[in-house]
Amino acid sequence: MTSIAVPYDQILQRRVLIIDDEEANLLLLETLLKREGYSQIHCLSDPSQAIAKLVEIEPHIILLDLMMPDIDGYQLLDAFRRHSRPDEFRPVLVLTADTTLQARRRALSLGAKDFVSKPFDVIEIALRISNLLETQILYERLRHGSEPAADAE
């Protein structure tokens, strides 16, 4: 996976937070990301710790399950939005077994940037994650007025 605008190694350096109450899903996603070359992967199985983890590690992207006990993904999407700066772009990729149109619409209206149904294709997930992170890097460049690195041209 290469990009003209953003070197792939820059994408791989981004911090990823995975929130899912199922340990098997966390392990699958962590293994996939490690295989792709990501090194800053943080997994969380207890959604009640999500805001503290968000503040602690300041992830560049969040992979979020919707259906979790006590605090669901919708509540977390709303909380993430309240804890983000207005000029911040932190994509949330929702991963869920709920394939209804209502679930998609609700998640997207609460700030999710992408939505993938479980079970998912691991190659597609990897591509979606890198695309969202590339978009984030480009957004940061625009916001800060910085030019692309010379090796990216």
Q: Could you please describe the fold and organization of this structure?
A:
There is one protein chain. The protein has 153 residues and is an alpha/beta fold. It has a single domain (8-143), classed as Rossmann fold (3-Layer(aba) Sandwich). The chain contains 6 helices and 5 strands, in the order αβαβαβαβαβα. It has a 5-stranded parallel β-sheet, with helices on both faces.
Euclidean distance between termini CA atoms: 16 Å
CATH C-level class: Alpha Beta
Rg estimate, integer Å: 15 Å
Q: Biggest sheet, open or closed, and with what strands and sense?
A: 5 strands, parallel
Just name the CATH architecture: 3-Layer(aba) Sandwich
**The CATH topology is what?**
Rossmann fold
Overall structural class, as computed from helix and strand content, comes to alpha/beta
Q: Could you say how many structural domains there are in total?
A: 1
**Number of discrete helical segments:** 6
Strand content: 15-25%
Principal-axis shape:
globular
Q: State the order of secondary-structure elements, H for helix, E for strand.
A: HEHEHEHEHEH
Please tell me the overall pLDDT: 90
Number of strands: 5
- Quaternary structure: single chain
Portion in helices: 40-55%
**CATH-level-4 superfamily name:** Response regulator
Strand order of the largest sheet: 2-1-3-4-5
Identify low-pLDDT runs. Answer: 149-153
